[in-house]
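Database export, one record per block. Field names are fixed; values are copied verbatim from the stored entry.
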Amino acid sequence: MNESMVVMVNGSIAAEISLLGAELRVLRKIDGENVMWAADTDHWNRVAPNLFPIVGRLKGDQYQVDGRVYNMRQHGFARDQVFEVVESAADEVVLRLAYSEATLALYPYQFEFLVRYKLEGATLWVEYQTKNLGDAEMLYSVGGHPGFALRGALEGHSLAFSQAGERVGFSADRRLIEGGYYSGKTAMVDVSTGVLALSDALFESDAIVFNEPGFDAVTLLDSQGDAMLDFYCWEWDAVGFWTKSGAPFFCIEPWWGWADEVGSTDQFTEKAGLHKLAAGAEESVSYGIGLP
């Protein structure tokens, strides 16, 4: 399939975004290499999907609203839809997806979903703006799933955590996942030094997920201790870290919502983590990727 791409550039960095899924494919310094990984079918066929109107997986891949059953795949449908360009400049673009007969068959809400990419110095900011165009309350989740290219094997890489510009150590429970759902169990992760050494063993039971993170920035470091990128989010409900064994990528995922639990019902109004929008209301959330 031939994909239309949008190119953005300023004096420091450049980005390329596909209209398919409004997906970031390339982010690099003007004279540098792409920090995003190149998708392949052996590991993962996506680069940085945008997650809407759900994050994670629904139990049985279905849910009910007002007595009607709807089916929806993991992470929602936006990542597989073609967006339209509604604003465009050399260093900024806004892409739009709106409800249609096809989306109403999957999700019974009238929405407008905007993804804004903006370059500021050596940082790319990504903003999700969700609008309720209907006359009843709308339930939704949204999130990012960018995958970054590793410099060799995962072992040797690490994450450094910061809050308000200062290195922060913490201990927190990660939510454990079984079969794509939260099991209700947790396991303590000790990051008292402020740095977490990465290894395949950390991800044997799927992603590491922290709810209400006690940090607002994460730096991905290579085996030499050099910063590969800084990831900023001032407002996330949860964050996921994910890779596959032996894969050449690592994902840092800002979430406003999360997957069902093993014991969840199929009633959408009872789903944990959903955001609610009154008729005519809108909400914006954002994150940034900085190249040192």
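Remark 1: The chain is about 0% helix and 50% strand.
Remark 2: The longest strand covers residues 181-191.
End of record.
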